[in-house]
Amino acid sequence: MISITGPLNQIKPAWIAETEQRLASHESIQRAILDSLIRYYDLMTTAVECGSPDMLEPILDEWVRSSLRIELDKHTSSVTLILNKILQVTIRIAREKLEKQAALDLIETILPIFSHAYLYVTQRETQLQIESISAELEAARDTLEQLDKSKSDFISIAAHELKTPLTLIEGYTAMVREQITKEAENQVDILLQGIDNGTRRLHEIVDDMIDVSLIDNNLLKVNFQPVWINRLLELVRQEFSQTIEARMLRFEIKPFAGSNELTFGDGERLYQALCNVVSNSIKYTPDKGQISVDGRILPGFIEITVTDTGIGIDPDDQTRIFEKFGRVGNVSLHSSGKTKFKGGGPGLGLPIAKGIIEAHGGAIWVESEGFDEVRCPGATFHVLLPIRKEPPEDKLAHLFRTVDKTRTE
Q: What secondary structure letter does DSSP report for 311?
């Protein structure tokens, strides 16, 4: 067999120079691939000398993995295109730099090497693509399992939460039918009030579900208007005044820096978020407990804190409480009242609050020593809101619309 090591060494400089130019037009890219091309050429020479086409496999494997990582072209193998260009350059340089017979001998010798390289690249790409697709399918399967569990949780919670107000409506309606012609008008009013309470509770649950859907799909609209935090907090106090009195809770709003300054935000949505946070503290604070609202001004932000003397939150649950339907404890042991101690709810209040606050470019988190129904270590919720002296542009507002998960209502 005629040795072609000499001809390969002879055309090497011209081969490297032209291959660099063919594969990368930019000089910086040429420098980056130079070492790889030299290594490929040396391995090709060794493969010819040893008669072992598999000598090229290590560098081909590196090229295939790199190509799949950056996904150059999912329809055509980028490594195959590289091999095509390399083969074309090799044949042309051999014909230009070598005698005719020497060029033919070299081409005849390297063709099996390239044939093996094409086959190896195709097999490795197929194998790696199958592995990648399998990993994606596995991840998709895990996601579907989580979605299926979430769906099951939703059905279970929705059924549990909707059952009470619907039962109220049905029961009071039946009683109205029986009593309306027998009892005095004031008795009818009481029954109708019961129907109204049940209907209103059901309406609140449905509204919460709609809000969660809007947050999940980045469709929550934030209408920036002038707002004052202290005025919103006073409205929150009025909202829960009857509950606070009935449960003999001590509710205090402390004046703090920045609370009386004008800022821009969606007053209605911020009021909703603050109500949800305070409602949560009320529900997990025993009767005669204390809830205090305080805050401070930070560079560019106002921080509002809601601290209660409630049963606290286990560290492992301090993230989960911000997830949709992420209620803590045994649902069957919760009371049915919205603001009663450990009252029920679909677990959407805090997720909605988090979605609203994050839509404003803020954040919410909780701190608690842990869960203890006897000692009642309490919890502190932190609400961080940006100070805005003017409303942001509508397009900019979209950047602040993120979705996350939140503590039970």
A: S
Question: Which residue from 198, 17, 3 is spatially nearest to 97, judged by alpha carbons?
Answer: 17
- The amino acid occupying position 271 is Y
**Chosen CATH of 225-399 out of 1.20.58.340, 3.30.70.20, 3.30.565.10, 3.10.20.310:** 3.30.565.10
For helices 5-23 and 27-50, angle between their N-to-C axes, nearest 10 degrees:
150
Residue 225 burial (10 A CB sphere; 0-12, 13-18, 19+): exposed
The three-state secondary structure class of 290 is: strand
Cα–chain center distance at 227 = 30
* CA nearest to 240, candidates 255, 253, 229: 253
The whole-number pLDDT of residue 224 equals 93
Cβ atoms of residues 318 and 400 within 8 Å: no
Give the closest residue to 400 by CA, choosing from 364, 343, 370, 356. Answer: 356
Domain boundaries defined on the chain? 5-140, 155-216, 225-399
Determine contact, residues 15/93, Cβ cutoff 8 Å. yes
Judged by DSSP in three states, 365 sits in strand
Assess whether pLDDT exceeds 50 at residue 395.
Answer: no
With b for 16 or more beta-carbon neighbours within 10 A and e for fewer, the 121-153 pattern comes to: beebbeebeeeeeeeeeeeeeeeeeeeeeeeeb
> Residue 38, Cβ neighbours under 10 Å: how many?
12
Q: In CATH, which of 2.40.128, 1.10.490, 3.40.50, 3.20.20 is domain 5-140? A: 1.10.490
Count the alpha carbons within 13 Å of 366 in the hemisphere toward its beta carbon: 31
CA 90 centroid distance within chain:
50
Residue-wise pLDDT tens digits, 221-258: 899 999 999 999 999 999 999 999 999 999 999 999 99
Match 């609202």 to its residue by tokens: 293
* 3-state secondary structure (DSSP) of residue 328: coil
Which range among 148-152, 171-175, 333-337 shows the weakest confidence by mean pLDDT? 333-337
pLDDT of residue 72: 43
SS3 185: helix
For residues 212 and 323, the answer to whether their CB atoms sit within 8 Å is no
Classify residue 212 by burial, with Cβ atoms within 10 Å: 0-12, 13-18, 19+.
buried
